[in-house]
Design a protein that fits this description.
The radius of gyration is 17 Å and the shape is globular. The protein starts with a helix and ends in a 33-residue tail after the last helix. Strand 2 and strand 3 form a beta hairpin. Strands 1-3-2 form a three-stranded antiparallel β-sheet. The chain contains six helices and three strands, in the order ααβααββαα. The chain has 175 residues and is mainly α.
């Protein structure tokens, strides 16, 4: 029988190590943190998104997402505009600069992932892993207990929330 705790530990440690190596390479070669790359990919796929949509997708708080969008906007990679359907929210879109940065960084990410995953696992195992992880992710996303909650907001469970693999000097996730 598979030791699920050991499997979880392996999964988390692998994610942390891969996140760190991808983040370091993207920063060095493109001046683009991995978190920003992930945001740009999400935005490019959808053309526009609310900050809440980004927070839900990235499994981080709305506050952390808003700070990350501020950093993307300051770098000229995205634009935030008022949401005409909801004055409490804003819409975020990728700028042409963000599209160029994403296009330049994507081959770097793909090459690094090929090195660490694609060249190690046979195609059939990789396909089975992709399907299995997708199923597990969909299960987790369907259960709202897995959502990041804002402290002091309804539904906040007061349990400690583990940080992302890399943090800025102020303790906020550097996306």
């Amino acid at each position: 029988m598979t030791d699920l705790t050991a499997l979880f530990t392996d999964l988390v440690r692998l994610e942390t190590r891969l996140y760190n190596v991808l983040d370091a390479r993207l920063k060095a070669e493109h001046d683009l943190p991995l978190g920003q790359f992930e945001f740009l990919r999400f935005l490019a796929d959808r053309r526009t998104a609310r900050v809440y949509d980004l927070a839900h997708q990235m499994a981080i708080t709305v506050g952390a997402t808003s700070k990350a969008v501020d950093r993307l906007e300051a770098a000229g990679r995205c634009r935030r505009t008022a949401n005409p359907d909801d004055r409490r929210s804003s819409l975020v879109t990728v700028t042409p600069q963000g599209q160029r940065d994403l296009a330049a960084a994507t081959p770097t990410v793909e090459a690094e992932l090929q090195t660490w995953i694609g060249s190690v696992l046979p195609a059939e195992v990789l396909e089975n892993l992709a399907v299995s992880l997708s199923m597990l992710r969909q299960r987790a996303e369907a259960d709202h207990r897995t959502d990041r909650q804002e402290p002091g907001r309804p539904g906040h469970h007061n349990a400690p929330i583990p940080p992302r693999p890399t943090l800025g000097q102020d303790g906020d996730a550097q996306l």
